[in-house]
Write a structure and sequence with these properties.
- This protein starts with a helix and ends in a 19-residue tail after the last helix.
- It has 269 residues and is mainly α.
- It is elongated, with a radius of gyration of 29 Å.
- The chain is built from 11 helices and no strands.
Length: 269
């Protein structure tokens, strides 16, 4: 058996090891806390800065209107997002919405100077957003609309529309705009995109929530498009199909929808 002094040696070594572990643990916690403070100091202001942009983009999607100057002021925030080192899909998506609203206002005012100045920032914002999040169907649709509108429909920008359909097949708010755009170009669409456009519209009706919007799109479509839609309605759900037919009837459109009973005679007939 060793002496008390001999026995103390391993105990002191153990104490040293325990102290080292405790020191490392405390150091790690301190560094972690310091890192959190530094991260918060760098990142939180960035997100705080973007809060107004998020609000404006959200309200634009809900149909709220803003003065052009407000949109232009917020566009400066969007530029800050694009120039940032952060790849933030939400912020870049919102920047596209904002830039699109500016171009839309310019077109509504028939202000060609403003239209010309708004086009390139929107195009660049779309490209930047897709470089960060290439699976955004709304931005692909926006890019298709921009490119086809400026250069005409071709096989290259047709792929932008294909990607929008493939990546966002069940997003109603995107499909509403997509249907309007696709039906305006329907005669030039290749077979696969024409089929996608019709299916997309039928899916909108099947939501059972967008009768007024889809009826307006149907009413503005060319007769050939309307005929394709009607023929495809055999695949639609019975209740939405019947309600959609009623909405068309109320708009003064006498259209025979497959599987729907004959329309009642109007009072003046």
């Amino acid at each position: 058996m060793g002496t008390i002094a001999d026995m103390a040696i391993p105990n002191n070594g153990r104490s040293v090891r325990i102290s080292a572990v405790q020191f490392l643990a405390r150091t790690f916690v301190c560094l972690l806390g310091l890192g959190a403070v530094v991260w918060g100091g760098l990142v939180f202001p960035f997100f705080w800065q973007q809060a107004p942009l998020n609000r404006v983009a959200s309200e634009l999607l809900h149909g709220h209107a803003f003065k052009m100057q407000t949109l232009l002021d917020e566009a400066q925030r969007a530029d800050a997002v694009a120039q940032s080192s952060f790849c933030n899909p939400t912020q870049l998506h919102n920047a596209v919405i904002l830039r699109l609203a500016i171009l839309d206002e310019a077109m509504a005012a028939a202000n060609q100077t403003l239209i010309d100045s708004a086009y390139r920032p929107l195009y660049d914002a779309s490209r930047t957003a897709l470089s960060c999040m290439p699976a955004d169907p709304f931005v692909w649709l926006t890019l298709f609309w921009l490119d086809a509108g400026k250069h005409g429909f071709d096989l290259d920008n047709a792929n932008y529309l294909r990607l929008s359909y493939a990546l966002g097949p069940n997003e109603g708010w995107i499909a509403l705009s997509r249907s309007r755009i696709a039906f305006a170009l329907f005669a030039r669409l290749p077979t696969d995109l024409a089929n996608d456009a019709i299916d997309d519209f039928i899916n909108l009706v099947d939501t059972g929530q967008l009768y007024s919007e889809t009826a307006a799109i149907f009413a503005s479509a060319a007769p050939a498009v309307q005929s394709r839609i009607v023929a495809q309605f055999a695949t639609a759900k019975p209740i939405p199909r019947r309600n959609f037919a009623r909405m068309l009837y109320n708009r003064g459109l006498d259209v025979t929808i497959p599987g729907v009973d004959s329309r009642p005679a109007r009072p003046w007939q």
